[in-house]
Amino acid sequence: MILPQIPSILEEPCKELRSMTASHWANKLKKPWFPSFLREKVQAALTLLWIDYLPPFQWISPASLIVKNLQSILGPSIKDYTFIDFCSGAGGPTPEFEREINQALRLGLIDEDHNHDENAAMTARRRKPVNTIAESASNGNPITSHPNTNSDPSVDFILTDIHPHIPSWSLACAKSPHLHYIPRPVDATSTPPDLFSLTHRPLQARQRKPFHLFSLAFHHFPTAPARATLHNALLHSSGFAILELQSRTPSSLLTALCLGPLLWMVSWYSFWGDWTHLFFTYVIPIVPAVVVFDGLVSCLRMRSRGEILQLIEECDGKEPRGWRQGWRFESGRAYHTWPIGEATWFVGIKES
Predict the structure, then answer these.
(1) What pTM did the predictor assign?
(2) Which residue, 24, 218, 311, 352, is the most exposed by fewest CB within 10 angstroms?
(3) pLDDT value of residue 68
């Protein structure tokens, strides 16, 4: 089903929104009048929207939906990559991506016939409760790092950001030896050549081909940095994925408006015991208000497949003829929340 696009009369305002820098919007949450603890609550709510699901509108989490489609697109070659998440924020869905993909690899659910047992794969992707992160932080027993053996097919994931979130990342990485972070700022438009050597601890798997991830991030870039980010990915990676939970459609705008009620429905059990979070969700609803506003702006800043391809073509003037040879691009969409909320993805794969 192809959902209607935003009317053309709104195209120019959408372009104006995309011309604003990501820091312009990020700074809204960094003003002195917006305390850091509230910013952390908003980030926790956004992570919850990635990894939680609410039947009958959602039968798997949006993160699991993305994993399912990445597995379908990459197939058995998924184990040939090291995944680098740019603009990770507080962690987002990447820890869940790591858990589900490596669980599927260890169970042998991704092979030459990787669609042979969809029901088993669905079961393997079921998440643990969201509050296990807090439990892991309190048990005082972080996972010990062990060198990966040839028999372990697990792949590594790396969290990065221009503004590293060390405390949040440390908690997430304590749960898995295959989840890492880079403690220094990393610019998505210009990745350092020694990126793999900058992680807070050695990678567990043998060094594999770099695969760049942008989860709910690419729409934040204005035109020039977006073009530079794609140029960097084409030059210095073997694949990349732009992953979003919205599109530039009326239905996505409606979905964004529903995020407030959705948080009211699920926050009480997901954040039970975090009374500050619950207070600013139910009594003074700052958290859902910020999430809804961010969702509406994100919808209007989204780029279509054609617009992303145009940015890629604009990089041709900076490189020799045929520099993109061997790259193929796939895109798609699927409902993460029936009947209006859809996830979209744009994936580039270097095949030679």
Answers:
(1) 0.81
(2) 352
(3) 95
